[in-house]
Amino acid sequence: MRSAIVVGAGTSGAIVARRLTDAGVAVTLIEAGGYDTNPAIHDPSRAGELWHSAEDWDYFTVPQTHAGGRRLHLPRGKVTGGSHALNAMIWVRGAASDYDAWERAGAQGWGWAEVEPVYEAIENDLLPVTDDYPLSPIQASIIDAAVQEGLTHNPDYNAGTLDGVSQEQVTMRDGRRVNTWTAYAQPVAEKLTIVTGREVHSVIVRDGRAVGVRLGEGEESEEVLADEVILAAGAIGSPVILLRSGIGPAADLTALGIPVVQDSPGVGQNLHDHLLSPVIFTT
Ligand SMILES: Cc1cc2nc3c(=O)[nH]c(=O)nc-3n(C[C@H](O)[C@H](O)[C@H](O)COP(=O)(O)OP(=O)(O)OC[C@H]3O[C@@H](n4cnc5c(N)ncnc54)[C@H](O)[C@@H]3O)c2cc1C
Protein backbone atom coordinates (compact mmCIF):
# COMPACT_ATOMS: atom_id res chain seq x y z
CA MET A 1 0.00 0.00 0.00
CA ARG A 2 1.40 3.41 -0.94
CA SER A 3 1.73 5.96 1.82
CA ALA A 4 1.50 9.73 1.85
CA ILE A 5 1.96 12.52 4.35
CA VAL A 6 -0.35 15.50 3.97
CA VAL A 7 0.89 18.54 5.87
CA GLY A 8 -2.00 20.74 7.02
CA ALA A 9 -5.59 19.63 7.69
CA GLY A 10 -6.90 22.89 6.27
CA THR A 11 -8.96 23.79 3.24
CA SER A 12 -6.87 21.97 0.65
CA GLY A 13 -5.23 19.35 2.90
CA ALA A 14 -8.59 17.99 4.03
CA ILE A 15 -9.64 17.37 0.41
CA VAL A 16 -6.29 15.91 -0.67
CA ALA A 17 -6.33 13.55 2.35
CA ARG A 18 -9.85 12.41 1.45
CA ARG A 19 -9.06 11.85 -2.22
CA LEU A 20 -5.90 9.89 -1.42
CA THR A 21 -7.56 7.67 1.17
CA ASP A 22 -10.45 7.02 -1.26
CA ALA A 23 -7.76 5.93 -3.76
CA GLY A 24 -6.36 3.41 -1.27
CA VAL A 25 -3.34 5.39 -0.07
CA ALA A 26 -2.34 5.21 3.63
CA VAL A 27 -2.52 8.87 4.66
CA THR A 28 -0.89 10.57 7.63
CA LEU A 29 -2.47 14.00 8.05
CA ILE A 30 -0.42 16.36 10.19
CA GLU A 31 -1.92 19.57 11.60
CA ALA A 32 -0.17 22.16 13.76
CA GLY A 33 -3.43 23.23 15.43
CA GLY A 34 -5.94 21.15 17.36
CA TYR A 35 -9.38 19.79 16.56
CA ASP A 36 -12.22 22.21 15.79
CA THR A 37 -13.90 21.99 19.21
CA ASN A 38 -14.40 25.76 19.58
CA PRO A 39 -18.18 26.28 19.08
CA ALA A 40 -17.54 29.70 17.49
CA ILE A 41 -16.09 27.88 14.44
CA HIS A 42 -19.43 26.25 13.69
CA ASP A 43 -21.69 29.26 14.34
CA PRO A 44 -20.99 31.74 11.51
CA SER A 45 -22.36 34.64 13.58
CA ARG A 46 -19.46 34.13 16.03
CA ALA A 47 -16.64 34.11 13.44
CA GLY A 48 -15.30 37.41 14.78
CA GLU A 49 -14.39 35.64 18.04
CA LEU A 50 -11.86 33.52 16.17
CA TRP A 51 -9.51 36.35 15.30
CA HIS A 52 -6.50 36.38 17.68
CA SER A 53 -7.83 33.14 19.23
CA ALA A 54 -5.92 29.88 19.75
CA GLU A 55 -7.22 28.85 16.30
CA ASP A 56 -5.53 31.82 14.58
CA TRP A 57 -1.81 31.91 13.68
CA ASP A 58 -2.30 35.63 14.33
CA TYR A 59 0.24 36.84 11.77
CA PHE A 60 0.89 40.52 11.22
CA THR A 61 2.35 42.08 8.10
CA VAL A 62 5.49 44.19 8.14
CA PRO A 63 4.65 47.93 8.25
CA GLN A 64 2.70 48.71 5.06
CA THR A 65 3.85 51.83 3.21
CA HIS A 66 0.44 52.29 1.60
CA ALA A 67 -1.52 51.81 4.83
CA GLY A 68 0.06 54.61 6.84
CA GLY A 69 2.94 52.37 7.99
CA ARG A 70 0.62 50.17 9.99
CA ARG A 71 1.14 46.46 10.57
CA LEU A 72 -2.06 44.68 9.56
CA HIS A 73 -3.52 41.56 11.13
CA LEU A 74 -3.31 38.58 8.75
CA PRO A 75 -5.55 35.88 10.22
CA ARG A 76 -4.84 32.26 9.20
CA GLY A 77 -6.53 29.18 10.61
CA LYS A 78 -4.52 26.93 12.95
CA VAL A 79 -7.02 24.14 13.48
CA THR A 80 -8.59 21.28 11.54
CA GLY A 81 -10.34 23.09 8.69
CA GLY A 82 -7.54 25.64 8.50
CA SER A 83 -8.57 29.08 7.33
CA HIS A 84 -11.93 27.68 6.18
CA ALA A 85 -12.66 27.18 9.88
CA LEU A 86 -12.53 30.93 10.50
CA ASN A 87 -13.22 32.52 7.14
CA ALA A 88 -16.40 34.15 5.82
CA MET A 89 -17.37 31.03 3.77
CA ILE A 90 -18.15 33.17 0.69
CA TRP A 91 -18.15 31.10 -2.50
CA VAL A 92 -16.65 33.08 -5.39
CA ARG A 93 -15.44 31.38 -8.53
CA GLY A 94 -13.67 34.49 -9.72
CA ALA A 95 -13.58 36.12 -13.13
CA ALA A 96 -13.14 33.90 -16.20
CA SER A 97 -10.91 36.58 -17.74
CA ASP A 98 -8.50 36.33 -14.78
CA TYR A 99 -8.07 32.58 -15.24
CA ASP A 100 -7.47 33.04 -18.96
CA ALA A 101 -4.89 35.76 -18.24
CA TRP A 102 -3.08 33.48 -15.76
CA GLU A 103 -2.98 30.76 -18.40
CA ARG A 104 -1.60 33.17 -20.99
CA ALA A 105 1.04 34.13 -18.42
CA GLY A 106 2.14 30.49 -18.20
CA ALA A 107 -0.18 28.73 -15.73
CA GLN A 108 -0.97 25.88 -18.08
CA GLY A 109 -4.25 24.10 -17.28
CA TRP A 110 -5.64 27.07 -15.33
CA GLY A 111 -7.68 28.60 -18.17
CA TRP A 112 -11.41 29.05 -17.53
CA ALA A 113 -12.32 26.20 -19.92
CA GLU A 114 -10.36 23.79 -17.69
CA VAL A 115 -11.32 25.31 -14.34
CA GLU A 116 -15.07 25.82 -14.79
CA PRO A 117 -15.88 22.06 -14.90
CA VAL A 118 -13.86 21.61 -11.71
CA TYR A 119 -16.00 24.21 -9.94
CA GLU A 120 -19.13 22.48 -11.20
CA ALA A 121 -17.84 19.16 -9.87
CA ILE A 122 -17.04 20.62 -6.44
CA GLU A 123 -20.42 22.35 -6.23
CA ASN A 124 -22.20 19.06 -6.94
CA ASP A 125 -20.01 17.11 -4.52
CA LEU A 126 -19.72 17.31 -0.74
CA LEU A 127 -19.56 21.05 -0.10
CA PRO A 128 -22.95 22.76 0.06
CA VAL A 129 -22.98 26.16 -1.66
CA THR A 130 -26.11 28.14 -0.91
CA ASP A 131 -27.63 31.59 -0.90
CA ASP A 132 -30.86 30.17 0.52
CA TYR A 133 -30.70 31.65 3.99
CA PRO A 134 -32.68 34.46 5.59
CA LEU A 135 -31.22 37.96 5.65
CA SER A 136 -31.80 40.22 8.61
CA PRO A 137 -33.95 43.27 7.73
CA ILE A 138 -30.82 45.44 7.85
CA GLN A 139 -28.94 43.21 5.42
CA ALA A 140 -31.92 43.10 3.04
CA SER A 141 -32.20 46.89 3.17
CA ILE A 142 -28.50 47.21 2.23
CA ILE A 143 -29.20 45.30 -0.99
CA ASP A 144 -32.35 47.37 -1.63
CA ALA A 145 -30.44 50.60 -1.04
CA ALA A 146 -27.70 49.58 -3.48
CA VAL A 147 -30.30 48.88 -6.17
CA GLN A 148 -31.99 52.22 -5.45
CA GLU A 149 -28.59 53.85 -5.94
CA GLY A 150 -28.43 52.33 -9.43
CA LEU A 151 -26.37 49.16 -8.96
CA THR A 152 -27.61 46.10 -10.82
CA HIS A 153 -29.06 43.34 -8.69
CA ASN A 154 -27.06 40.23 -9.64
CA PRO A 155 -28.88 37.08 -8.52
CA ASP A 156 -25.86 34.82 -9.25
CA TYR A 157 -22.43 36.43 -9.33
CA ASN A 158 -20.90 33.00 -10.11
CA ALA A 159 -22.82 32.69 -13.40
CA GLY A 160 -20.35 34.71 -15.48
CA THR A 161 -20.87 38.33 -14.46
CA LEU A 162 -19.33 39.37 -11.16
CA ASP A 163 -20.60 42.95 -11.12
CA GLY A 164 -23.61 44.11 -9.15
CA VAL A 165 -25.01 43.65 -5.67
CA SER A 166 -25.85 40.14 -4.50
CA GLN A 167 -26.62 37.98 -1.52
CA GLU A 168 -23.46 36.00 -0.78
CA GLN A 169 -23.26 32.33 -1.66
CA VAL A 170 -21.75 30.51 1.30
CA THR A 171 -20.69 27.00 2.34
CA MET A 172 -23.27 26.51 5.06
CA ARG A 173 -25.97 24.00 6.00
CA ASP A 174 -28.83 24.76 8.40
CA GLY A 175 -27.06 27.89 9.59
CA ARG A 176 -23.88 25.97 10.49
CA ARG A 177 -20.47 26.34 8.84
CA VAL A 178 -19.48 23.54 6.48
CA ASN A 179 -15.80 23.50 5.59
CA THR A 180 -13.64 21.03 3.71
CA TRP A 181 -12.57 19.39 6.97
CA THR A 182 -16.15 18.67 8.07
CA ALA A 183 -17.26 17.75 4.53
CA TYR A 184 -14.29 15.71 3.28
CA ALA A 185 -11.80 14.55 5.91
CA GLN A 186 -13.75 14.24 9.17
CA PRO A 187 -16.24 11.66 7.78
CA VAL A 188 -13.30 9.32 6.98
CA ALA A 189 -11.21 10.23 10.01
CA GLU A 190 -10.98 6.62 11.19
CA LYS A 191 -9.22 5.70 7.93
CA LEU A 192 -6.59 8.41 8.35
CA THR A 193 -3.68 8.66 10.75
CA ILE A 194 -4.24 12.15 12.12
CA VAL A 195 -1.61 13.99 14.12
CA THR A 196 -2.73 17.29 15.67
CA GLY A 197 -0.84 19.84 17.70
CA ARG A 198 2.46 19.07 15.93
CA GLU A 199 4.18 21.54 13.63
CA VAL A 200 6.07 20.20 10.64
CA HIS A 201 9.49 21.79 10.72
CA SER A 202 10.86 20.64 7.37
CA VAL A 203 10.79 18.13 4.55
CA ILE A 204 13.37 15.34 4.70
CA VAL A 205 15.13 15.10 1.35
CA ARG A 206 17.32 12.09 0.56
CA ASP A 207 19.00 11.55 -2.82
CA GLY A 208 17.03 14.46 -4.24
CA ARG A 209 13.63 13.03 -3.19
CA ALA A 210 11.22 14.05 -0.43
CA VAL A 211 10.95 10.99 1.80
CA GLY A 212 9.19 12.40 4.83
CA VAL A 213 8.91 15.29 7.25
CA ARG A 214 10.52 16.35 10.48
CA LEU A 215 8.12 17.23 13.29
CA GLY A 216 9.27 19.86 15.76
CA GLU A 217 12.80 20.95 16.44
CA GLY A 218 15.66 19.99 18.75
CA GLU A 219 15.19 17.21 21.31
CA GLU A 220 11.48 16.80 20.55
CA SER A 221 12.18 16.40 16.84
CA GLU A 222 10.73 13.30 15.21
CA GLU A 223 10.87 11.89 11.67
CA VAL A 224 7.81 10.61 9.80
CA LEU A 225 8.52 8.84 6.50
CA ALA A 226 6.25 8.06 3.52
CA ASP A 227 6.29 7.48 -0.24
CA GLU A 228 4.90 10.94 -0.97
CA VAL A 229 4.83 14.28 0.84
CA ILE A 230 2.15 16.85 0.03
CA LEU A 231 2.49 20.32 1.50
CA ALA A 232 -0.95 21.85 2.06
CA ALA A 233 0.07 24.22 4.84
CA GLY A 234 -1.23 27.37 3.17
CA ALA A 235 0.23 30.29 1.23
CA ILE A 236 2.40 31.22 4.23
CA GLY A 237 2.93 27.83 5.90
CA SER A 238 4.06 25.82 2.86
CA PRO A 239 6.87 28.18 1.79
CA VAL A 240 7.99 28.45 5.42
CA ILE A 241 8.42 24.66 5.54
CA LEU A 242 10.26 24.65 2.20
CA LEU A 243 12.62 27.42 3.32
CA ARG A 244 13.39 25.59 6.59
CA SER A 245 14.12 22.53 4.42
CA GLY A 246 16.74 24.41 2.43
CA ILE A 247 14.50 24.79 -0.63
CA GLY A 248 14.32 28.43 -1.67
CA PRO A 249 16.44 31.35 -2.91
CA ALA A 250 20.02 30.22 -2.26
CA ALA A 251 21.30 33.65 -1.20
CA ASP A 252 18.54 34.12 1.39
CA LEU A 253 19.04 30.62 2.79
CA THR A 254 22.80 31.07 3.02
CA ALA A 255 22.36 34.41 4.79
CA LEU A 256 20.21 32.64 7.38
CA GLY A 257 22.71 29.79 7.79
CA ILE A 258 20.36 27.19 6.24
CA PRO A 259 22.21 24.66 4.04
CA VAL A 260 20.90 24.91 0.45
CA VAL A 261 19.21 21.71 -0.71
CA GLN A 262 17.77 23.26 -3.84
CA ASP A 263 18.01 26.80 -5.18
CA SER A 264 14.36 27.69 -5.93
CA PRO A 265 14.21 31.48 -6.34
CA GLY A 266 10.38 31.69 -6.33
CA VAL A 267 9.77 30.10 -2.92
CA GLY A 268 8.47 32.62 -0.39
CA GLN A 269 8.21 35.42 -2.96
CA ASN A 270 5.38 37.46 -4.41
CA LEU A 271 2.61 36.88 -1.86
CA HIS A 272 -0.48 38.85 -2.84
CA ASP A 273 -3.37 39.43 -0.48
CA HIS A 274 -6.39 41.68 -0.50
CA LEU A 275 -7.03 44.39 2.04
CA LEU A 276 -10.26 44.13 3.97
CA SER A 277 -11.95 47.09 5.62
CA PRO A 278 -14.74 45.76 7.81
CA VAL A 279 -17.28 48.36 8.91
CA ILE A 280 -18.92 46.99 12.03
CA PHE A 281 -21.85 48.51 13.92
CA THR A 282 -23.60 47.23 17.01
CA THR A 283 -27.24 46.49 16.25
C1 LIG B 1 -10.59 35.81 7.95
C2 LIG B 1 -10.58 35.19 6.58
C3 LIG B 1 -11.70 35.30 5.77
C4 LIG B 1 -11.70 34.72 4.50
N1 LIG B 1 -12.85 34.73 3.77
C5 LIG B 1 -12.92 34.00 2.63
C6 LIG B 1 -14.16 33.83 1.96
O1 LIG B 1 -15.19 34.28 2.42
N2 LIG B 1 -14.16 33.12 0.79
C7 LIG B 1 -13.00 32.57 0.28
O2 LIG B 1 -13.06 31.93 -0.77
N3 LIG B 1 -11.82 32.70 0.91
C8 LIG B 1 -11.77 33.38 2.09
N4 LIG B 1 -10.59 33.45 2.76
C9 LIG B 1 -9.41 32.79 2.18
C10 LIG B 1 -9.46 31.27 2.34
O3 LIG B 1 -9.92 30.93 3.62
C11 LIG B 1 -8.06 30.71 2.10
O4 LIG B 1 -7.61 31.10 0.81
C12 LIG B 1 -8.02 29.19 2.16
O5 LIG B 1 -8.63 28.74 3.35
C13 LIG B 1 -6.57 28.71 2.09
O6 LIG B 1 -6.56 27.30 2.08
P1 LIG B 1 -5.21 26.52 2.25
O7 LIG B 1 -5.52 25.06 2.21
O8 LIG B 1 -4.21 27.04 1.29
O9 LIG B 1 -4.68 26.92 3.71
P2 LIG B 1 -5.40 26.78 5.12
O10 LIG B 1 -6.84 26.48 5.01
O11 LIG B 1 -5.01 27.97 5.92
O12 LIG B 1 -4.73 25.46 5.73
C14 LIG B 1 -3.39 25.38 6.09
C15 LIG B 1 -3.31 24.43 7.29
O13 LIG B 1 -1.95 24.05 7.47
C16 LIG B 1 -1.64 24.12 8.85
N5 LIG B 1 -0.20 24.35 8.95
C17 LIG B 1 0.48 25.48 8.61
N6 LIG B 1 1.79 25.30 8.85
C18 LIG B 1 1.93 24.04 9.35
C19 LIG B 1 3.04 23.28 9.79
N7 LIG B 1 4.29 23.78 9.76
N8 LIG B 1 2.83 22.03 10.27
C20 LIG B 1 1.57 21.50 10.31
N9 LIG B 1 0.47 22.19 9.90
C21 LIG B 1 0.66 23.44 9.42
C22 LIG B 1 -2.48 25.28 9.36
O14 LIG B 1 -2.62 25.24 10.76
C23 LIG B 1 -3.77 25.08 8.58
O15 LIG B 1 -4.68 24.25 9.25
C24 LIG B 1 -10.54 34.04 4.02
C25 LIG B 1 -9.42 33.93 4.84
C26 LIG B 1 -9.43 34.47 6.10
C27 LIG B 1 -8.22 34.28 6.98
Q: Considering the protein shown, what is the CATH homologous superfamily of the largest domain?
A: FAD/NAD(P)-binding domain
Number of strands: 13
Shape: globular
Compute the gyration radius: what is it? 21 Å
Q: Kindly, what is the distance between the CA atoms of the first and last residues, rounded to a whole number of angstroms?
A: 56 Å
- The average pLDDT is 95
Q: Which regions contain 5 or more consecutive residues with pLDDT less than 50?
A: none
**Secondary structure category:** alpha/beta
Strand order of the largest sheet: 7-2-1-11
User: What is the CATH top level name of the largest domain?
Assistant: Alpha Beta
- Ligands in the structure? flavin-adenine dinucleotide
Main sheet: strands, sense, barrel: 4 strands, parallel
The CATH topology annotation of the largest domain reads as FAD/NAD(P)-binding domain
Sheet-strand content, in percent, reads 15-25%
Percent helix, as a range, is: 25-40%
Number of helices: 8
What pattern of helices and strands is seen along the backbone? EHEHEEHHHEEHEEEEEHEHE
What is the number of independent domains? Answer: 2
Any idea what the CATH architecture of the largest domain is? Answer: 3-Layer(bba) Sandwich
Kindly list the characteristics that best describe this protein.
single chain; 283 residues; alpha/beta; FAD/NAD(P)-binding domain; 2 domains; 4-stranded parallel sheet; 3-stranded antiparallel sheet; globular; binds flavin-adenine dinucleotide
